[in-house]
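Cont'd.
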Amino acid sequence: MENFDLLMHGFGIAITPFHLMLMVVGVLLGLVVGVLPGLGAPNGVSLLIPLTFTLDPTSAIILLSSMYWGALFGGSTTSILFNIPGEPSSVATTFDGYPMARSGQSTRALTLAFMSAGIGALIGVVVITLLAGWASRFALRFGAPEYFAVYFLAFAAFIGMGSASPVKTVVSLATGLLLASVGMDNVTGEVRLTFGFSDLLGGISFLVVVIGLFGIGELLATVQEGLRFRGVSSRIDLRDMLRTIAELPRYWATTLRSGLIGIWMGITPGGPTAASFMSYGIARQASRKGAAFGSGRPEGIIAPETADHSAGTCAMLPMLALGVPSSATAAVMMGGLMIWGLTPGPMLFATKPDFVWGLIASMYVSNIVGVILVLLTVPLFAALLRVPFSIIGPMIVAICFVGAYTVSSATFDLWLVLVFGLVGYVLSRLEYPLAPLVLAMVLGHKAENAFYQSMVLSDGSLGIFFANPLVSSIMVIALALLIVPKLLHIGARLRGRRPASQEIR
Amino acid sequence: MTVRRFHAEVATAIGTGALGAAAVIGALELGHGWSESGPESGYFPFYVGVILILASLWNLGAAIVARQTAQGDDGAELFLDRERLLRLGRFIGTMLAFVILTVVMGIYVGAASYVAWNAWRSGGYRAWVALAIGCGFSVALYLVFEVAFLVPLLKGPIEPLLGIY
């Protein structure tokens, strides 16, 4: 019941007129960001962080997390109405959402998506509420070697469990770690890897990199396709909406299953995108009428949406309790936390209970605010996509550059955005995963510090990572995550059960 | 003018490998071994750089192998065809011009000209409408960033003449 009291205290912080206003603003901004191509959730949050420096951290995180929820909702809107996923995690929603909307049931499709997204998020927050206290107490036992082991676990999970080629994930991670180590070394105070460029002395801001990789990079992908938006009617019919809400309980099994998948993928570093695909796939297998998927089945909308949002919400748990974000957006938010002077991790629960529980309580409120707002404003945001790309595209580009400039008022960052935009486009076209790069950039310093401290403790022996049961079990899990998926894959290939054409990479 | 996927893969692998090599060289200058107090500051970048080089070599090899096995069925996959390359080239070209203009003249002039140019050339709007859209956008930027959030943006030589600092 201890958590319950803390949560009530959190509600006291979250439900103030100012914070409610921040939630509305955050959700609306998130919707804009989610609807527009090239402005995804990680990028949107990066753009907003420099503007939050004047707010106190609790208000700032409420604003940023509300924006994240809004972006998740916005991503589903375009998936359904335009067959264009506004976010990578809403790709799976296009499979059944767009066909349903095209057959004249756009209200039904949108309502299903938003309601199940809201339910998914609530499932996620309930899990966070129940586990937060326990997770942070557990993490209080962690020393430097355990922390390094946890970071290693996060990296290993991306390599072993990600859908991309493992070696490409390694490249992405290593690039992120190297980018993070440019500038002042925070252990020895030496200047590293600047090669004499004074612009690099302060290091490379991960915000600038995210804006380039995700913002400009995604926009270039849009341009390459020569995208023209062909939308379906976006009017919301109130009676249809109520009828759809009444039909929701029928899909309780799909909802529950997808929620669980989302929780699992959110806490382990699978992330919302993997969760939504996995959930869609399992819903299709579980359904008796499997063949009808892809033609506008309600389960085909509910499954990815519930999983997407519960994963997105649950990604906040490892970020807060361990300081290990499991999605790109959570990584950016964690970077923001560190800029505000907070250290994510177990001590946060002890030293800043107002911040942690205010945030958790705000997740309940802002997701409900989000569902209501998104249902009210869908026609408005759908209209945004009817603005010609020749106008909205350059505006997005300009906003990305402006946002990068506000990070540290350096013109050098403008060039960095341009370079990372091109890099991000090429890398994502070649199926290099970008989320590990961001994660590595945010965690780079912390991982290096933890490694350094462990080495000092052990006089340079790697044995310290297997010195006690706690750290060795984390390391064993990490190594297993690294190796087992590939062994299974090779094993399956040796037995020749899968024809080469069907291999899942 | 087309770009094949093979060439893109190879160029990327060489690029990431070069980044790793740069890190290794930088780390060697700093010292990558052990000092009295623990690892020297080049230790971490050195080994990450080595991993990056090895992984890049692997990707390079994988691209070459993939090309040899794919040779039988209709050549290599296209990365960018002519039309897309042109479209991307135009977009990146104007974006580059925007950045140069912004660095010289400030963000407001840069953004207004960039938005107006695109609306005029690729949007097909009349010149004065396009210019109005561009200027309106810059005014909106000013109101949001400098007035509402008190965040100063990059200014060029023109703004002081208008009394904006």
